[in-house]
Amino acid sequence: MKADIEKLVSLMARLRSPGGCPWDREQTLASLVPFIIEEAYEVIAAIDEGPDEALKDELGDLLFQIIFACRIAEETGRFAMVDVIDHSYDKMVRRHPHVFGEAKAETSEDVLRHWAEIKKTEKRGKPSGGALAGVPESMPALLRAHKVSQKASKVGFDWKDISHVLEKLDEEVLEFHAAVSAQDAANVEEELGDILFTLVNVSRFMQVNPEDALRKTIGKFITRFHHVEASIIGQGRDIADASMDEMERLWQDAKKESKA
Questions:
Q1: What b/e readout covers 134-163, taking b as 16+ CB neighbours within 10 angstroms?
Q2: From CA 219, how far away is CA 258, in angstroms rounded?
Q3: What's the pLDDT tens digit per position in 44-68?
Q4: Dihedral angle computed from the Cα positions of residues 183, 188, 189 and 191, in that order, rounded to the nearest 10 degrees
Q5: Cβ atoms of 58 and 50 closer than 8 Å
Q6: What is the per-residue pLDDT across 228-252, written as a single tens digit (0 to 9) for each?
Q7: Model pTM?
Q8: Burial class (CB in 10 A: 0-12, 13-18, 19+), 204
Q9: Of residues 244, 224, 226, the one with CA closest to residue 234
Q10: Other CB atoms within 10 Å distance of the CB of residue 71
Q11: Which residues have CB under 8 Å from 80's CB, separation 6+?
C-alpha cells in the first residue's frame, strides 16, 4: 500500500490554522528541538528493545515532528515539505552514482569513499569554518566527540594504530590519578574529560559507536540492578537496608544469569 504523507501534512495544517490547537499554534522551530531529540531517542529505544508495534509508533512520532517543523518553516516563507523531500531525493541520487550513474562500487568501502568525495565537492565554494566545522553542539557529547575525532582523522591528525591510542589512554589515566591525589577538582574534571575523549578514539579504531556501547551498558546495568532490587524486596526488605556485600553477591548472580 502506498503511504499517503499528505494526510499528516493536511492534519498539521489544520492544527496550526485558526481554530486549531492552541498549543500547536504556539510552537516555533526552537521550541520543537527538545521534542525532536526526545522522539529520535525513543525510536532508538524501540529499535533496541521494542516490538514492531512500538517502533512503528515511535517512527510515526518522529515523522510528525519533521512535518511540524516543515509547516512552521512554510508559514514563514522559508520552505515547504515538498522542498525537503525534493532536496533529499536529489541529494541521495547524487550521492549514489554507482546506482544512478556510471561510477562503480563493489564494496561498502567503495560507497563510503564515493560519498566522502561527493560531500567534499558539494562543499566547494561554501564558507568552510575549518576541518572540524559542521558538528552540532546539540549532539550528545560522546557522539559529538566521535564525529570530531573522525573529522580530524580524515585530514591526517590521528594515531597510526590502536596500540598508540591505548598508550595514550594509559597516559591519561595516570594523569587522572595524579589529579585525584592532588585533590585538584578542576584538573580532575579536565583529566576525566581527556580519558573519555581518548576512549572515544579507542572505540573509533575498533569501529564501535561509543554512544551505542554506553547505551547498551546502561541498559545492562538497569537490568542487573532490577535483579538485585527484586531479590531484596522479595525478602520483604528495603534495598536501602541491604549491605554492599549482599548487593554485590546478588549482582554477580545477575551477571551469571545474563550469560547463561
A1: eeeeeeeebbbbbbbbebeeeeeebeeeee
A2: 12
A3: 989 988 789 999 999 999 999 999 9
A4: 170
A5: yes
A6: 999 999 999 999 999 999 999 999 9
A7: 0.71
A8: buried
A9: 226
A10: 20
A11: 70, 73, 74
